[in-house]
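Much of what follows relies on a compact textual record of a protein's fold. The record below shows the convention in full:
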Amino acid sequence: MNTAPEDLLLPGGGASITSLPKVSLHDHLDGGLRPQTIIELADAIDIDLPETDAAALGDWFAEKSDSGSLVEYLKTFDVTTAVMQTKEGLERVAREFVHDLAADGVIYGEIRWAPEQHLTRGLSLDEVVEAVQEGLDAGVQDVSYAGHSIRVGQLVTAMRHADRGLEIAQLAVRHRNNGVVGFDFAGAEAGFPPSRARDAFDYLAQNLFPTTVHAGEADGLDSIRGALFDGHALRLGHGVRIAEDIEIDSTDNESTYVTLGLLSQWVKDRQVALELSPSSNLQTGAIEAWGDELIDHPFDLLYQLGFRVTVNTDNRLMSNTTLSRELALLSDTFGYDLADIETFQLNAAAAAFLPVEDRMALADAISAGFEDV
């Protein structure tokens, strides 16, 4: 297993965030590779890389990802997906992914990835899903042998620009008893609304299969509407731009009034989970309407108003981050304490694509872990 990440503490030298039980809902498989693994896999299949030293390659990803544009950010995935085209490569990446989650204190993780992007060396859609599941299962077993416990599930993703939505939805449902817990819709958001894949989302609804949709990241409120009403989304991938539907007015006597629009009220009232990823949202320009620093992120506004906010990494390699680091950054910026961090984990547990009994058990495990601090 990988060595444990740096132990991160709450501001003021408080509790260890790294050791707290956590839930990860929005974490891309092709965005979480170890730089050294990329180098070794690339060498095995004769692929050229921009850097051949692990530290330098990690820096390259961080630099290229910090562009302020989702389209530019996504170009870095050309490198990671290139080394994930064989059974061996997929299994290794998935196995190490579980190791790294467990080292960061994650006890339940949903791992999203797009099988259609891993077919260039002859594997079929079903074969790549099976390879990833074998890697995930091996990682869970490794973690168990090391004395830790983690549960993981696949979110099979369709790329919105590729128009293979129904085929990928059928793939996801086909593997619902082999580790796939949900469906995701991702890629360049603007210009590729969920309505383009309405047949896929209708098929998923007919088969009672849960869906999350990337929306409210690189596009605005219409994208979120499409995710909810065309995509039947139970969660919003990022969803940060729902804050565009919130009006804040200050009066002369310094009172502040907040008014929610119909869409934001709907999302709040129905507790549609927001899969917020603070560092990534800065890198891709998702919060540029409010500023370009973490203090400008509407995360705290949404939290204080009672939205079901969750904290995620999005892509640990590109953002050079972990879930513990994201929580530490938020705590440092907004003054969150242990109770706030527990709330974020309970929000994520409630939104997990698990049976209700399993969600309740997950919530109990989280609460027990926080009580032990």
User: Anything to note?
Assistant: Strands lie at 22-28, 106-113, 151-159, 180-186, 211-215, 235-238, 246-250, 256-260, 273-276, 309-311. DSSP finds 15 helices and ten strands in the chain. The first strand starts at residue 22 and ends at 28. The chain has a mean pLDDT of 94.
